[in-house]
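Question (not urgent): is this output format expected?
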Amino acid sequence: MATLIPCPNSSSNFVLLFIFLITNSICISGDITIPNEIISSSKLRKDPASIATASNDYGNLVQEPPSLVLYPSSIDDVINLVKYSNNISAPFTVAARGRGHSVRGQATAAGGVVVEMSSLSSGDQDMSNNGIRVSWDSSLGCYYADVGGEKMWADVLRAGLEYGLAPVSWTDYLYLTVGGTLSNGGISGQSFLHGPQISNVLELDVITGKGDFVTCSKDVNSELFFAVLGGLGQFGIITRARIVLAKAPTRVKWLRLIYSDFSIFTRDQEHLISSNVPDYVEGSLITDKSPPNNWRSSFYSPSHYSKIISLLNTKQGLLYSIEVVKYYDEQTADTVDQEIEVLMNELSYTRGFIFKKDVGLIDFLGRVENTDNNNIHQKSSAKAAASSVHPWLNLFVPKSRILDFNAGVFVDIIARLNHSSGPILFYPFHRIKWDERMSAVIPDEEIFYTLGLLHSCGPEEAGIYEELNKEIVRFCEENEINIKQYLPHYKSKEDWMKHFGRKWNTFQELKTKFDPRLILSPGQRIFTSADLSDI
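Got this back:
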């Protein structure tokens, strides 16, 4: 504690006061003051570069500068931050930021504190597997990995493969954090078989909005466990997840099939996910504005690409594609081709338009390259930062309405788009693979589809794609297609209530229990200070 000694002139008093503030209170930024004994001065930053990074995300559509950015070296730093905010008269908001791959500012905290979770990796004691521990659970009869919430799924893959193991449910892009995807859902072409990533978690460590550190599972502190999974960061910050692992295949048979008829395209997808053969199924659209090869994957050779484009030109500029994968290893190498041949004979793709690859598991799972070093939110120059925006739209569509959705959205709304588009994904899931107790929201049908409009454009075109997204949502509302947004983005409480439906009251009660002062994840815009009296 500094001691103030009276000095004969005011300038000396000012110097001593300045020293006192530096010594005892690391940062006074906006209205936020955090004492040095709570968090070391070296871990809180407000320099322009740190603030700029924490203000933005992959979408590059939202700029919400925080007052401070925390670079924690331990979980205790995060606990202390949240507890401190919770205990002061005017709490500040806190957002955990993984790799910044949200697209609507969900990981921002305007005027609050953003926690750069990746900084926790610098404190790993066990660096043999990047701080990830692989173990066997004899009671469950399975292997698992204990993984920090700040770790990327690419890290989990590498650590598991050291033991010949791997998770069973993935995202298409592996350079997302475990805590980030588990706060949303975590979906890909394996989800029809194994469920989303949130369905493959055994245990979590969570820091609640009160600053409590809680270990939870389906059997212990289960209310928090189910709330956090798909909970959009509203109830706690995930600092560790216990992920189910299984024996890893070594190679994959990777096929793409082309269709010109939507009904056959979806019928075949539903047949595939109901069979016991494929390990991965994803459908997509091919248009003259969303070509066969794109940033997500360059699958086709030049000759195959030309062949598909020629067919596209005869089909009103719209084709559909199914991507099918079958894993194999040395034990199944002799039978995998026959299995695939039998399965392909059951499908009705356009004959002559089947394309095949045989690649290693890592090559397939890593097909979407790590773009972090090229992402606009990682670049320092203002010109680069303004070069690209990503106004994505992700929806869940009930199976009973997909024909109407195709006619209104794919054949009409998207067909009228006169600008280049990113990948357009459309593939099915089984509801039974999702746990209703979790916070994630899906349609009330046994089979539903996910739509991913992964737009990428310049800032001057963002409005075009935003209007396209709004038109699609309006079409669904006007035609009573009960869609649900994945990675949801709403601006009103009424919209959030409609989104959560029958889960809303429970969601609100859990917010009151685990984050009563509305500290966590303000960028989701679900709760505001005006809601304090309501919850």
